[in-house]
DNA sequence: CAGTGGTCTAGACCACTTA
DNA sequence: AAGTGGTCTAGACCACTGA
């Protein structure tokens, strides 16, 4: 059932300008669908109802549902298969690994590289001020700190520090093993789907720890990726700082 | 007039699978529009015909034209204004500067910074092997090398080396002054519109020249952006290597 | 074969711009 | 008032999937 009724303006002789914050029908429908995914009514991997069924349920035309689902698909929130149906996207697929992991070999190959997992440590503690700012946490909130190394072609190339709010991911510090793609864990176990990641890139010097882990001289330039991942509801849910040895691999972006 | 007739399959009792490389109508229409822009039949800033007029001309429905134009708009190739019409995008606008210039202040501000131009040198010479590979040039082709400094808040923060095929941009080395956004010059004077830029980011050490220009110690880590810009027809038209002092500014990306 | 998403059409009405 | 893009509908037919 619909939580909030759609407000239909076009075709109802109501001047749109008289409605504050008016959104066209297809955007309202889109918002309904996002809420269903983000609140778990539609679960990752599950098939969602057909366009026709949704159109009937919401009392709109199939074209309007389709336009909303086009947007969902372009944002990788759903996956559509002609003849089969539409499915809530899972972060477990290989494509999800590469969605947020943009390291690749340099030109001319430019192929994405598949990182392996190296050493890993996990502990929980109180959040410091920077962490509270990044993750919008209250004073005294607890966080989990994960540190790990990523290998490429067997050699350590990236060190990562990952900070998670323990309140959002209870017991994650007690997991025996963490997967290569944490985002599938967030989604599968905790129902948290990442919608966008905001990254800031800098060049920094390797400190002693970086240098030892990566087998470099201290002071060697590293590419630092400072990323805050945001969930479907807009809440920041992960702060991750990766430092990469970019002598053999690069961070690849296509700007449109 | 249409250069190549559209091949209509749907609705013509022709099984689509029997046509090799079949593209749906709206994609064919999209390709026609891109060609018109890339070949200059529709010029930057100019209004293009209305959806109805284009639908009549091409013998398709307005909805099909709209779908093609939706794609163009999402790629920033055209600009649509309700009540006014659709216009070929110009690279002269402020938004175009930021489209390919992604340096910003760090969180929490995260606002884009507007770079000023510092020193600049321009010379032309034969392309070396790397340049020929990057720009797909023939042996003996000539290139223009532009070196310049970009200032942020008045202080030099970025050094750039820009390599252009002289064949594509004849006389560009004789221009008195080059604009801050070269892409507007490429488009306005030479009819070359950039569709995508492929960037590779690395952390590197400042060499002596970098250090002197940026007021740093040699060896200081710099963020190196290695970018090849590609025109609408798929041809690489610019190779640019920027080295940035990222102590006060960062390269900002939002990954969806 | 029925059901799904993908393509395409025709037409209505709306809001915005310009004249 | 006329013309533009924006929204929305209803319906046809297509290609693909799985029973």
Describe it.
The structure is a homodimer of 256-residue chains. The model of chain A has no long low-confidence stretch (mean pLDDT 91). The radius of gyration of chain A is 22 Å and the shape is elongated. Chain A folds into 2 domains: 16-88, Winged helix-like DNA-binding domain superfamily/Winged helix DNA-binding domain (Arc Repressor Mutant, subunit A), CATH 1.10.10.10; 94-251, Chorismate lyase-like (Chorismate lyase). A 6-stranded antiparallel beta sheet of chain A has the order 5-6-7-10-9-8. The first copy, chain A, has a 3-stranded antiparallel beta sheet with strand order 1-3-2. Chain A has a two-stranded antiparallel ribbon with strand order 4-11. Chain A contains 7 helices and 11 strands. The first copy, chain A, is α+β, with helices and mostly antiparallel strands and 256 residues long. Chains A and B meet through strand 8, strand 9 and strand 11 of A and strand 8, strand 9 and strand 11 of B. Strand 11 of chain A pairs antiparallel with strand 8 (194-205) of chain B. Chain A binds a DNA duplex (19 and 19 nucleotides) through helix 3.
């Amino acid at each position: 059932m619909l939580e909030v009724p759609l407000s239909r303006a076009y075709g109802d002789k109501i001047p749109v300008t008289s409605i504050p914050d008016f959104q066209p029908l297809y955007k309202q429908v889109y918002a309904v669908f996002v809420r269903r995914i983000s609140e778990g009514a539609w679960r990752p991997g599950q098939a969602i109802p057909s366009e026709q069924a949704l159109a009937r349920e919401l009392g709109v035309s199939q074209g309007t549902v389709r336009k909303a689902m086009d947007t969902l698909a372009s944002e990788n929130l759903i996956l559509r298969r002609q003849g089969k149906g539409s499915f809530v996207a899972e972060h477990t697929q290989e494509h999800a690994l590469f969605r947020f992991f943009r390291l690749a070999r340099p030109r001319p190959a430019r192929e994405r590289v598949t990182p392996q997992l190296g050493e890993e440590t996990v502990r929980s503690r109180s959040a410091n001020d920077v962490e509270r700012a990044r993750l919008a946490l209250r004073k005294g909130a607890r966080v989990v700190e994960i540190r790990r190394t990523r290998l490429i072609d067997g050699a350590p190339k990236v060190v990562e520090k990952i900070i998670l709010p323990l309140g959002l991911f209870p017991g994650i510090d007690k997991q025996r093993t963490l997967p290569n793609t944490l985002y599938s864990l967030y989604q599968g176990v905790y129902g948290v789907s990442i919608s966008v990641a905001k990254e800031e890139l800098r060049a920094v010097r390797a400190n002693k720890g970086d240098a030892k882990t990566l087998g470099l001289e201290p002071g060697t330039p590293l590419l630092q990726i400072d990323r805050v991942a945001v969930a479907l509801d807009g809440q920041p849910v992960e702060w991750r700082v990766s430092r990469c040895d970019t002598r053999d691999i690069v961070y690849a972006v296509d700007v449109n």
